[in-house]
Design a protein that fits this description.
The protein is α+β, with helices and mostly antiparallel strands. Helix content is about 15%, strand content about 40%. The relative contact order is 0.25. It has a domain of about 110 residues: Jelly Rolls (Sandwich). The strands form two sheets. Strands 1, 3, 6, 7 and 9 form a five-stranded antiparallel β-sheet that branches. The radius of gyration is 28 Å and the shape is elongated.
Length: about 170
């Protein structure tokens, strides 16, 4: 039979108070323990090579709402006059388009474009001066992060996570 924690009309003794303080301090330690979890965005990438690369170099369709956060584009050589990178999002309602002029071999762009389910991404490359800037290879990669409601959520105890990751206690 379980012994009640506080009996009626009986004063609380020091042993009980000490036990309660121990339990409270243990619970307080657990509540301060934090763990950082990294959710990685999905990479969308492609490489196109040939004698004279121009036009569409990547096509991709999104199955869920999210955001394209950044992109990296690497050309085979530094362009003399520049290369235009066109990013087009199309859907049944219309779409949007962004253009970037690249003058370096490696360029980081930050489009911060919101995409929806069914949106179709097209990326094209076109040299400003086709005679001076023949592109023979283009590498590109974008980071797409789906909205939280379209991701899988898992709840775990912090102690279980620490055990799985072998994180040393501080």
């Amino acid at each position: 039979m379980k012994i009640p924690l506080f009996l009626k009309n009986i004063p609380i003794d020091e042993k009980r108070i000490s036990w309660i303080e121990t339990v409270v301090s243990r619970l307080a330690r657990r509540s301060r323990k934090q763990t950082t979890v990294i959710v990685t965005p999905y990479p969308i990438s492609n490489c196109v090579s040939g004698e004279d690369v121009k036009g569409d170099i990547l096509k991709y369709m999104f199955c869920a709402k999210g955001t394209i956060s950044k992109g990296l584009i690497v050309l085979d050589k530094r362009p003399a006059t520049g290369v235009v990178i066109g990013i087009t999002l199309a859907n049944d309602m219309g779409g949007s388009s962004h253009s970037y002029v690249l003058t370096k071999k490696t360029s980081m762009i930050d489009p911060k474009v919101e995409v929806f389910s069914g949106d179709r991404l097209s990326v094209s490359v076109n040299p400003i001066d086709a005679e001076k800037d023949k592109v023979s290879e283009v590498w590109l990669s974008f980071m797409w992060t789906p909205d939280v409601k379209d991701t899988t959520m898992k709840q775990v105890l912090i102690d279980s996570l620490d055990e799985a990751l072998d994180v040393p206690e501080e």
